[in-house]
Structures are given as structure tokens and as C-alpha cells.
Amino acid sequence: MGFKCGIVGLPNVGKSTLFNALTRTAAAQAANYPFCTIEPNTGEVGVPDPRLSKIAAIGKSAQIVPTRITFVDIAGLVRGASKGEGLGNQFLANIREVDAVVHVLRCFEDGDVTHVEGRVDPVADAETVETELMLADLDSLERRVVATRKKAAGGDRESKHVLPIMEKALELLQNGKPVRMMEVSHEDRPLFDGLMLLTSKPVLYVCNVEEASAASGNAHSARVEEMAKAQGAKSVVISAAIEAEVAQLSDEEEMEFLEGMGLHEPGLDRLIRAGYELLGLITYFTVGPKEARAWTIVKGTKAPGAAGVIHSDFERGFIRAQTIAYDDYVALGGEAAAKEAGKARDEGKEYVVQDGDIMLFKFNA
Q1: Can you tell me the distance from the alpha carbon of 305 to that of 34, in angstroms, rounded to the nearest whole number?
Q2: Where are any strands of DSSP class E within 67-193?
Q3: 64-95, pLDDT tens digit by residue?
Q4: What is the model's pLDDT at position 33?
Q5: CB of 284 closer than 8 Å to CB of 302
Q6: Phi/psi of residue 13, nearest 5 degrees
Q7: Which helix (H) or strand (E) holds 6?
Q8: What pLDDT was estimated at residue 111?
Q9: Is 219 exposed, middle or buried (0-12, 13-18, 19+ CB in 10 A)?
Q10: What is the per-residue DSSP string for 302-358?
Q11: How far apart are CA 30 and CA 36, in angstroms?
């Protein structure tokens, strides 16, 4: 199960610096957080999770395997992308393929780094990109609604179901709002997702600040945070320059460097976790002598679906899942003690897996 976050932004906002820091960090920490290059502009990064090393130590696991999230460095967008300006068509096609958008905004002043529009205004930058995505969606939907209305009038059942969703999305776009702000029922979600609208993607705003503002942010990042809250989106403050330096350091040097900057952890760790949360994902664990491994599932997944992430045979032949809550596993010191204390539960097909669950699946081959 792969999840992709597309890193977008105007030219010269620090987007590629951030992506390069992500990939270098992952390569440097290959023992704990593996990274592999899928394409020149795509990288898989381990999701930092301190729980994993704790359960690995308790379970005496020989190897630690974190869950992963994919980041894609998407070509910089310029005004007019919706009409094919710059690399517009490629940009829009790449966004269509990701699950969430990580929008890097320039929140630093630097006369040596030219801004494509000659000013530093992260909120206006965000609006530029959002407007291009909304225009592209508007153009796509206006054309499709006409054809869908004809089919619905002719009695086509699927068209009758999807038409109200399309019209509601179209109304939002015409009012200058992204379609991710639309309320969609669980039953309508597959149809809505099938529209493949660019502004349906959840958004995480990354405020790229100067080094001095990495710990607390600045006036620019405060404006972005306010904008994100109004949209129901999230924002993270990061200094791409600091992250590029951190990526070159050993673990010991890294902690010393970060403490000197007033930081408790690399900003990239927060970015990775925020991207993970943005997609509505949670983690469950498997632990044994060979490895302790984290597995990614969507929040709300039932036990058989979680088993299927490991192997489709596990889901098809699912019988039950031995489940221990993370806190119980750590407090009691492992599986044997948890069983003895009655904290190892046998859960069936209707069990909704919780974040941090440590699981062992029983299945028919």
C-alpha cells in the first residue's frame, strides 16, 4: 500500500532543497529509516516513530523496519499553469497522481534569492497555486458535467448518482473554493474520488523560514498558519537550509547542532509525520526475533484489511488477530508478560485496528 505526497510550490521557494534534504537524511540513516530512489524525483522515506525502537528492544528483534511514505518533487508551477504555461501540463498531471499535496511556501527574506513574482508573500503564493488548480478543475468539470447531464437524462444510473456530486463541486469552484472543503458522505466517497479533482487533495503547508526563525516561526509563517486553520489544513515550520545541514551530520553531531538552534528534532521528522497524519494513516506493529516492523493502514481499517497489508493470503484466510496495545506491551515487557496479565486479546473480523496495536495474525493458508 503506497502513499504519495507531492511537494509543490513556486520556483525558488526551497522546494528542491527540502526534497534533497529528505532524501539525504533517509540515505544517511539507512539503518533505521531506509530510503530508496524509485525515480530521479521520487523518494521513499521511513516515518520516524520512537515506539518502534522500544518494542524492538523488548522483543529482541534483529532488524527494525519502519513504515514508509513517498515524497515526489513536482516541477515548480508558474501563473498560467492551468493553461499550459511553463511546465503546467506536467505539473497538473503529477499532482493528479499523488494522495496529498505538501505546499512549500517562501517565508524568508533574501535579496540573493529571486522570487518569481518579485515579492515575499507566502499567502499570495499559496493563492496563486490554488487558483491554478481550481481553474484546471473548473475547466475539467464544466466539460464533464455537460456530458453527464445528457447521460443522466437518458436514464444512465451511474450518471444520476454522480451528477449531484459534480454539480456541488462545480458550485464550490465557481465560488472560488477548493473541492476538498466539500462534505462528502462515506457512500459518495468512491464517486467523488473517481472525479480525480486536483483540489480534492488534502494540503499541508510547509513554511520555509530563515535559520533564526526555525524554532518559533516568523510573521510570514504566522499568516500561513492562520490561512491553514481557516481552510481546515495543516502547516509546519521548517528551515530548509538547516535541514540540508542536518542531513550531512552524524546522529551525535545532529543532536548537538539542533540543541544549539533551540530545536528538539529535525523539522523533516515533523514534516514526515504531518504528511502521514494528513492522509489519515495510522501504524500497527509486528514484533519477532527477526524484525520489528511498522505497517501503514488507513484509520478505521478492520483486522482482515490490516492483515492484507502484509499479504493478501492473510486477509483471505483471516481467522483472528492476537492484539496487544502498545502501552501494555511496553509496560509489561513483551508478549509473554502481556498474555500472562490478560492483555493479549483475540480479535475477530469486525475489530477496528488502533494506532500502536501489536498484532499477530492467525489465518488459513
Answers
A1: 25
A2: 68-73, 100-106
A3: 999 888 888 886 555 554 454 444 456 677 78
A4: 39
A5: no
A6: -105, -5
A7: strand 4-8
A8: 64
A9: exposed
A10: BHHHHHHHH-HHHHHTEEEEEEE-HHHHHHHTSHHHHHHTT--EEE-TTPBPPTT-E
A11: 9
Is the separation of the CB atoms in 100 and 203 below 8 Å? Answer: yes
pLDDT at residue 115, rounded to an integer:
58
Q: With a threshold of 0.85, does the pTM exceed it?
A: no
- Mean pLDDT (whole number) for 170-194: 92
Better pLDDT: 93 or 151:
151
Using DSSP bridges, classify how beta strands 42-46 and 68-73 pair: parallel, antiparallel or unpaired: antiparallel
Instruction: Report the DSSP beta bridge partners of residue 44.
Output: 36, 70
Cα 4 vs. chain centroid, distance in angstroms?
7
Computed on alpha carbons and rounded to an integer, the radius of gyration of the chain in Å comes to 23
Return the closest-CA partner of residue 269 out of 256, 280, 284, 255: 255
Per DSSP, the residues of 217-238 read --HHHHHHHHHHHHHT-EEEEE
Contact, 358 vs 285, CB < 8 A? yes
